Amino acid sequence: MGSKDYDSSRKPSYQHAATRSKIKILLLLVLTNALSIFLFSGSGSAFGVKFWRYAPSVHVWDSEKLMLELNTTRARLSDSQSQLSALRNQLSTANSLLETLIADTKRFDQDSNNKRTGMWAREPSEELKLAMGPHKLPLGFTPNLGSDELFPTLGQACHKFQDELEKYLDYPVGGVCFSDDIFAQRLMLKGCEPLPRRRCKPPTPAGYVEPHPYPESLWSIPADTSITWDPYTCKNYACLVDRGNHPGSYDCKDCFNLFGREKDRWMRETSELDYSIDGVLALKPKGTIRIGLDIGGGSGTFAARMSERNITIVTTSMNFDGPFNSFIASRGLISMHLSVAHRLPFFDNTLDIVHSMHVLSNWIPDVMLEFTLYDIYRVLRPGGLFWLDHFFCIGTQLNSTYVPIFERIGFKQIRWNAGRKLDRGIEMNEWYLSALLEKPIS
């Protein structure tokens, strides 16, 4: 059957062949090992071949020499590892220096770009560059400035409105400025205050006539030809005077009508919220209230009443669809076109009185209001008066927000009166605060 069909007589010859093959392999292995020992032990020089030049010699019969060479090899390996470690450190240092160099290069490029454009979104126009400076002083360094160059003042938010600012500065140099009063005022109210100076002239009103003489000017409506009417809805003073008789929301709606409510303002105390000028002045020694400021003074009536008492008041006002600053000036009073956000342009401890009606109210962010009140405290002289007139707020705000602010600033309370504003209903919980505060003398 299948597994028994082979020739059993051939089996011994296969076994002998296998045995001979094993013996040959064993002899070859022994011969190879002997030759390796012979060559690497240095004996190969008998044939003129110096193999130790190409491979380390191994002295199998000298253990001490073998150990010495092993130790030497180990030392060399250790030294190589130290050198490799040092090389790695040098490479790491080089990489760090390269990264620093790249960062410095980027920073230099950015600084160069910033030096060229500053905080502007792009390269400023040539007139804007001239307007914002800096400009080298002709006589060089001056210790008064601590510099050899002069920077014109510019509102910190101006760079956010580059397109509008460059439009404001786009004019024929030496020519007439475009009629852009309202455009310019909007820039101011956005924080671009002060605006940069310009090299153009404002339009002169056609047919300009001289103002009324003082003190007649205090209660006279100026001529229509005293101003340029382009920026305003009304095109004459008669329109402005009559505006209070018509529906619509306007800032200081009836302020131009000098023979309406304006004529009686601050003349007598009609309620605990309405202080009179004479009543306030009576709280101080006669003649010690001489100069002051009215913040957001409308058409200048507070300053006019003070002028009648030989007290000089500077009035700040904005031109909200009406020529408030021009009107104040026509009355023979000093007007300043400043927003409520502007730092007061007076030195410390100089003013006798600061007044503000309606303008300082809860529409101003709390932090900004606190800065404003500290600024008022700054410009008042010791013993000076801050007359807060009809400050508007919600009932819950009065004690929780505003009283703590006034306490932090440190005014001394002379009068403090709060009352409800009821024209929109008691449920609105709207309040007015009038207060007379004094800056402490010590």
UniProtKB/TrEMBL annotation:
<dbReference type="InterPro" id="IPR029063">
    <property type="entry name" value="SAM-dependent_MTases_sf"/>
</dbReference>
<dbReference type="GO" id="GO:0008757">
    <property type="term" value="F:S-adenosylmethionine-dependent methyltransferase activity"/>
</dbReference>
<keyword id="KW-0808">Transferase</keyword>
<dbReference type="Pfam" id="PF08241">
    <property type="entry name" value="Methyltransf_11"/>
</dbReference>
<dbReference type="InterPro" id="IPR053223">
    <property type="entry name" value="Prob_Methyltransferase"/>
</dbReference>
<keyword id="KW-0489">Methyltransferase</keyword>
<protein>
    <submittedName>
        <fullName>S-adenosyl-L-methionine-dependent methyltransferases superfamily protein</fullName>
    </submittedName>
</protein>
<dbReference type="GO" id="GO:0032259">
    <property type="term" value="P:methylation"/>
</dbReference>
<feature type="domain" description="Methyltransferase type 11">
    <location>
        <begin position="293"/>
        <end position="387"/>
    </location>
</feature>
<dbReference type="InterPro" id="IPR013216">
    <property type="entry name" value="Methyltransf_11"/>
</dbReference>
<feature type="coiled-coil region">
    <location>
        <begin position="70"/>
        <end position="104"/>
    </location>
</feature>
<keyword id="KW-0175">Coiled coil</keyword>
